[in-house]
From TrEMBL:
<dbReference type="InterPro" id="IPR012795">
    <property type="entry name" value="tRNA_Ile_lys_synt_N"/>
</dbReference>
<keyword id="KW-0436">Ligase</keyword>
<dbReference type="InterPro" id="IPR012094">
    <property type="entry name" value="tRNA_Ile_lys_synt"/>
</dbReference>
<dbReference type="InterPro" id="IPR015262">
    <property type="entry name" value="tRNA_Ile_lys_synt_subst-bd"/>
</dbReference>
<dbReference type="GO" id="GO:0005737">
    <property type="term" value="C:cytoplasm"/>
</dbReference>
<keyword id="KW-0819">tRNA processing</keyword>
<dbReference type="Pfam" id="PF01171">
    <property type="entry name" value="ATP_bind_3"/>
</dbReference>
<dbReference type="GO" id="GO:0006400">
    <property type="term" value="P:tRNA modification"/>
</dbReference>
<dbReference type="Pfam" id="PF11734">
    <property type="entry name" value="TilS_C"/>
</dbReference>
<keyword id="KW-0963">Cytoplasm</keyword>
<dbReference type="GO" id="GO:0032267">
    <property type="term" value="F:tRNA(Ile)-lysidine synthase activity"/>
</dbReference>
<comment type="function">
    <text>Ligates lysine onto the cytidine present at position 34 of the AUA codon-specific tRNA(Ile) that contains the anticodon CAU, in an ATP-dependent manner. Cytidine is converted to lysidine, thus changing the amino acid specificity of the tRNA from methionine to isoleucine.</text>
</comment>
<dbReference type="Pfam" id="PF09179">
    <property type="entry name" value="TilS"/>
</dbReference>
<keyword id="KW-0547">Nucleotide-binding</keyword>
<dbReference type="InterPro" id="IPR012796">
    <property type="entry name" value="Lysidine-tRNA-synth_C"/>
</dbReference>
<feature type="binding site">
    <location>
        <begin position="10"/>
        <end position="15"/>
    </location>
    <ligand>
        <name>ATP</name>
    </ligand>
</feature>
<protein>
    <recommendedName>
        <fullName>tRNA(Ile)-lysidine synthase</fullName>
        <ecNumber>6.3.4.19</ecNumber>
    </recommendedName>
</protein>
Amino acid sequence: MRGIVAVACSGGRDSLALLHATATAARGQGLDVVALHIHHGLLPEADAWFDHVESMCRRWAAEGLPVRFIGHRLTARPRRGESVEAWARDARYAALATMAREAGAGLVLLGHHRRDQAETFLLQALRGGGVAGLSAMPSRIERDGLVWQRPWLDVPRAHIEQYVRQCGLDSVDDPSNTDPRFARNRLREAVWPVLVEAFPDAEVALAASARWAQQAAQVLDEVAAADLATCAVGERLDIAAWSRLGEARRINALRAWLRERRGEPATAALVERLRTELIGTGPACWAWAGGELRRYRGRLSFGQAVAAVAPSREPTLAIRRAGRYRLPGWGGAVHATRVDEGGVPLAWLAHLDLRERQGGEQFQAGFSRPARSLKKQYQAAGVPEWDRGGPLLFSGGQLVFVPGLGIDARVVGLPGQAQMMLAWEAANVTEG
Ligand SMILES: Nc1ncnc2c1ncn2[C@@H]1O[C@H](COP(=O)(O)OP(=O)(O)OP(=O)(O)O)[C@@H](O)[C@H]1O
């Protein structure tokens, strides 16, 4: 089977040139090229761009180049208040990934060049970006099971213009590329010409700075990984161990820990708040990313906000066999596992009432121990307020199971009886 390379082609000068150059090089190497084009459905010109890229591919294929067109029209729209640019980028990459996979391509090429890289560096600096932002665009990354490459990231824009002229390529012009509402366009139109006049090597120098930043970012990641190996406990952060790091490493490790929790960077404002507030005693909470960061007993964890639990709570549950019983209304699931002892006899589990804590419930933690109020039991077991979510399981009026505490000793089965161990698992809560 022939290898397949995908080129993401907007129809603009750079990506059309890249598509042509890739198809030309592929001819001699027994490779096939697919041109992936996304119609964002945002501008009236988009129909013409779609047709243009398609007809170029058809023409080149007729001339013997191993290229074929795959187009996709986005039907979704950005939400009210959402940045159109950010929405278009995310939707485009998601669609490109699906199209590449369906076409059997493991490699997707993008048409960014050295000036794009220099601009990105400058824009990041003007936003006060950190080392990760100043790294601008990587020349190669692996994501969604694909390799994304920018083969022209070190190529000067002027070389691409020359290639386009030499090959007589006819590209499309996107009018939004000059819209001054976008920072990149203001930089291109108003700043760049003046900048290169005063600093003719600006493109080379800024792209080189981006490369330095990439190396620095990698070192910071490695240092953070080494530091987290000493102060992360499962999904939690040990605050005492963390506080022993020097200040810069502490902030760097915290950023990396937060990024791991959500897969996206935390804001500078949150990092600054935690820097000053995290070291301390007693429970504390910080709202973040639709959830909560919680300090409890010297550890920091991240989980779903208690108030975010859905309101329609399931009133009953029947457990007849081992498995995971989802209770979305309670924001989690009950796990039932077959055990030989220490579990709840099956007879208790066939008709369970699910109730919220009312106050006054008594729980017995062990055979020879007295039943005590849930509040006292929670305190004794060190279960923080936010881990006390989930339903109390009653059977025939008797408390059977309490999330965070376990099975009430009064219902524990005799060895040999058919019985289940129960556990409560809160949705989206990361626990160590
Ligand atoms: N509509 C699209 N369909 C497919 N790929 C796209 C599309 N828009 C952008 N890309 C890919 O992302 C790269 C960068 O996009 P960007 O918007 O910066 O460039 P452009 O203005 O579309 O023009 P050019 O094709 O000249 O790079 C493009 O080179 C191309 O590889």
